[in-house]
Design brief:
- The structure holds three protein chains of three kinds.
- Chain A has helices at 62-67, 109-115, 135-138, 152-164, 190-196, 241-254, 295-300, and strands at 38-47, 52-59, 75-80, 84-89, 100-105, 122-129, 142-148, 172-178, 199-205, 215-216, 233-238, 261-264, 280-281, 284-285, 292-294.
- Residues 20-31 of chain A have low confidence and may be disordered.
- Chain A folds into two domains: 15-128, Elongation Factor Tu (Ef-tu), domain 3 (Beta Barrel), CATH 2.40.30; 135-300, Nucleotide-binding domain of ferredoxin-NADP reductase (FNR) module (Rossmann fold), CATH 3.40.50.
- Helices cover 19% and strands 28% of the residues of chain A.
- By secondary structure, chain A is an alpha/beta fold.
- The termini of chain A are far apart.
- In chain A, the strands form three sheets. A seven-stranded mixed sheet of chain A has the order 10-9-8-7-11-12-15, with helices on both faces. In chain A, strands 4-3-6-1-2-5 form a six-stranded antiparallel sheet. A two-stranded antiparallel ribbon of chain A has the order 13-14.
- Chain B has a five-stranded parallel sheet with strand order 4-3-5-6-7, with helices on both faces. In chain B, strands 1-2 form a two-stranded antiparallel sheet.
- Chain C has two domains: 2-67 and 89-207, no CATH class; 218-352, no CATH class.
- An eight-stranded mixed sheet of chain C has the order 3-2-6-7-8-9-1-10. In chain C, strands 5-4-12-11 form a four-stranded antiparallel sheet, with no helix packed on it.
- In chain C, helix 7 packs across helix 9 (294-306).
- The radius of gyration of chain C is 23 Å and the shape is globular.
- Classes of the chains: A alpha/beta, B alpha/beta, C alpha+beta.
- Chains in contact: A-B, A-C, B-C.
- Chains A and B meet through helix 2 of A and loops of B.
Chain lengths: 305, 254, 359
Amino acid sequence: MPDKHFVIPRQDINREDFTSSIPDFNRRSEFMKTDMGHKCIITNIVRLTEQEKLFKLRIIDPHEQGIFRFKPGQFLMLELPGYGDVPISISSSNSNHEFLELCIRKAGHVTSALFTLSEGAHVAIRGPFGSSFPMDEMAGNNVLLIAGGLGIAPLRAPLFWISEHRERFLNVAVLYGVKEPSQLLFTYQFDEWEKINHITLHTIAEHAEAGWRGKSGMITDLFQDISIDSEHTYAIVCGPPVMFKVVCSYLDNLGIPMNRMFVSLERRMHCGMGKCCRCMVGSTFTCVDGPVFDYWSVMNLKEAI
Amino acid sequence: MKHRGFTFEKLKIASFDFTCCEGCQLQLANRESTLIDFLELLDIKNFRELSSEQFDDYDIALIEGSISRQDEVERLQAIRRQAKTLVAFGSCACFGGVNSLKNKFSLKELVAEVYPGMKVETMPVKKISDVVKVDLSIPGCPVNKEEVERVMVNLATGSLVTLPKHPVCFECKAQLNTCLFELGEICLGPITRGGCNAVCTTGKTPCLGCRGPSEEINMPAFVELVKARELSLDDLQEKIAFYNAFEGFSNHEA
Amino acid sequence: MIYKVIAKSEFKRFTDALLRDNTSFGPRQVDTDSRGKAVYQFLPVTSSDDVAFDYTATASSAKHFFLPFREELSRFVFQDQEWDQQISYEGNPIVLIGLRACDISALNILDDVLLKGHFPSPYYLAKRKNTFVIGMDHLPLPDCFCKSMNHHTISTGFNLFCSDIGENYYLSINSSKAFNFLKECDTRDPIDDDNCRLVERRKIISDSFRSEVDVTALPSILDIEFDSPVWEKWGNKCLNCGTCAMVCPTCYCYSVEESFDTNLKGATRQKKLYSCNLVDFAEVAGGHNFRPKNGDRLKYRYYHQHRGFAENANQQICVGCNRCGRACLAGINPKDVINDLRMEKESCLTNISSSPDRI
C-alpha cells in the first residue's frame, strides 16, 4: 500500500484521562504536576541537639501557601535539587498556615547537605502524603502519646492539635524516652505543654549522664508512673521498631483495643505516591496507607515490626 | 562557584601512577562532551598526562596501579601524608589487577624470564589498601569516565559518594542483551559490581569482574550454576583470578 | 469490539505501510542460544519482513516502552539562588506489533497500578496513550503458565488483536484508530467458517499448555507460609542479580536518584527501574536493611507478584509468561517455587491422611 498512509497522531494527556479516578494532588489546579515541588524559604533553623535541627519553612508562592493543608501525622517530601528528596514528618501545627516546621536528623546524604544550609536558603516540598492520626475520633478520651528518640517529631503535630482543642480531651500524657538525656528534643516546650496545656510529661533516659536528675531506664519503666483507663484511652506510639512491639503489647495487655493504638512507621521512600514500592511493608505502602496505622493493621502486616 | 546557598570549591587534585598501564588516567581526558565542564571542577596540582606543572598542595590523590617495588611503597606513603582523600583508581589500585597474576610465580623465576641477566628489584604485587588507608575506590579496567565524573561532582558538592550495589546482570538486562551463559560462556556478570553499563557483555565479551564483587554476592550459587551448565571450572577459576578481585571468595571456588 | 477477517497477504501490506509510517517495534531474532534455540527481543522494525511473526516469546518484555529502564522525572536549571523545575511527559507515537496476550494483560495490570489510586502516573500515561498495540496469538511454550493465571486470552488493552486462522487473520478491532486504518484495507466481516476456525484456534492454544501452577487461594497461602523454610531454600540459590524483575512485564518498582550536571548548572531527577531482589532495595539512610537476607527479598517478590498489594486491590500481577524463570541463571521459577510452597502444605496432609487430596 505505498499510496496509503497510516500515521498515528501524537496525543497529549489531559484532565479527562483521569476522570475515572480523581487525583488528589493536594487539590492542585494542575493535576499533572505530581512531581513539581512548592518552593520554600528556610526562615529559621534551630539546632536542637548535635544531630537534630528544627527547620522552619515558608511556602514562597502565596497561592501555593493558600492551598497547602495537612493533617497531624502526615509527611512531606523535602527536596534539595541536585541532592535528592527525603520523607519528613511535619512537626508543626496544622492550623499554622504560614509556617511548616520539620525536625530533621542528619542521617543520609540529603539531610547532611540540608544541615549545611543557612536561613534564607531555598528548598522545595511535595505533599502532604500519607495517612493521619484520627484526632476527631480520639476526642472525648484520654490520649497517651509515647515517643522514643526522634519519634517525638511526628507526635508534635498531634500534640499541637490537642493543645489547640484541649477541652475536647480528658487526660493527656506524653511518655518520652531517649538514650542519653542530651538527646531530648523540644525541651523548651516542656513547660508550655505541662503548665499551659495540662499535658502530663514523663521523660526517661536509658543512660543517665552527670547532672541528669530525671529517671533512667527504658520507656516501659514509665508505665509504673501512670494509671491507664483502658476503656477510654487512645495511644499514639512512635519510635524505633523495637519499641513498637514492646509498648504496644504492653498496652494490649492492659486492654486498650488494638484499633485505638496508632503507630507511625518509617521506611525509605522514593516517590511518596504508592508507585516505587520501596516503602512496602507486607502488602501495604507506608507512604499511601501509612505512615499512621492502627496496631491491628500493623499486627497483620508481615515484616512490619 | 556559588550555588543556592552552597559554595563549592574546586577540587585540588593530583593523579599518580604506579605499576599500571596508565589507561585509567587516560580516561580522565576522555568523554569530550563534558570534558571542559569536568576540568572546570578541578584544580589540577599534579597530573603528568594533562599538565607539566607540579604542585604538592593537593587534597585529593588519584592512585592508579598496584605496588610492586619498595620505592613505590615509600612514594605512596608520602602521598598518603599529603592527601585528605586518597582514591584507589582503577582495578590495579583496588584489587591488584592483572599485575597480580605475577604472584603465582616465584620472583626469581619471573625476573629470569622477563629480564634475563638483569638485576631487577621487585616484590609481590599489592593493592593500594595493603599499603595505605584508602578513602574511596573507583574500580574498573579502565575506570568508567561517567562514574569518575559523578564521583568528582559528588565530592565537589559534598554529596555522598557510593558505588552501585547491584551486579552487572542488572544493567546488562536493560541493554536487552542475550545472556552469555545462554551462549555457552562463563560470564562474571552475576557477581560483579555494576556501574559499567555492561559495556563488555553488550559487545558479547564475557565479564571478567574488573569492578570487583558486588554487594553480598552468592558465590556458592554461582559456582553451582557453572557446574549445572557443565561449563569448565578451569575457565571459571581463570576468570575469577583475572583481576584478583575475588580474593576473599576463593574458599567457595570449585 | 469489531471483528473482521483479513488475508495474511493484505495484512502484510497493511503492516508494511503502518511500520513504515511510524516508529515501530516488533519481535526480531537476536541470537541463537547454545542449544540451538532462537532468542527474540522487541526491536525497531520498519517493514513486515523485519517482524518474526512466528516467534515464540521475547526474552525481555515490552514493559520498557512504557516504563523505561531509566527515565528523567524532572530537570532543575539553576540560576543564582533560584532554580527552575522542568517536567515533561514525553510520549511519541509508536507501534508495538506482535505482543502476546499475556504481554497485553501485563499492560492492563500496569494500567491498574499506575493510572488508578491517588496518584496516577502522567509519565506512564503519556507513553501508554501514544502506543498503538497490535497483539498476535501464539501456541504456548512448554513452560508458559499464563493459562493458570487466566491471562492466555485477552479482550482489552490493545488496538488490534490478530488470531491466526490459517490463510487469514481474525481481527479483533478495539480502537477507532485501528478501525479507520483498516477501512483502507481489504477486509471482510467474519462468516461462520471464520468463527469456527477462531474457536478451533483458541481451543488448540488452550489445550497446548504443558505447565500448570495452582494459584487457588495463593494469597492466603503466601500469608500463612510467610515464615516457611521454602523461602530460605530458594533464597540460597538466588544471585541477587535482579534479572527476574528486569525481564518481567509487570515489575514496576523503581529507584529515584538525583544528580548534578557536571557543570553544576543544573540537576536531574531520574527514575531507574529497580528490583526487590537487589540487596539495597529496603535499605534506609543509616544503613539499616529491612530485608537483609536473600530469602526475604525473594519472598517479597513473590508476595508482590502473587499476593498483590493493597493499593492495587490485592490483584496478582504475575501474568504467567515465565520470562523470569527462563532468564534466571539459578533456575528459580514461579512454577517450582509455588508448587514447593504448596507441597509444604500437602506434606502436612500426608501425615494425617492416607490419601491426601490436592489442596
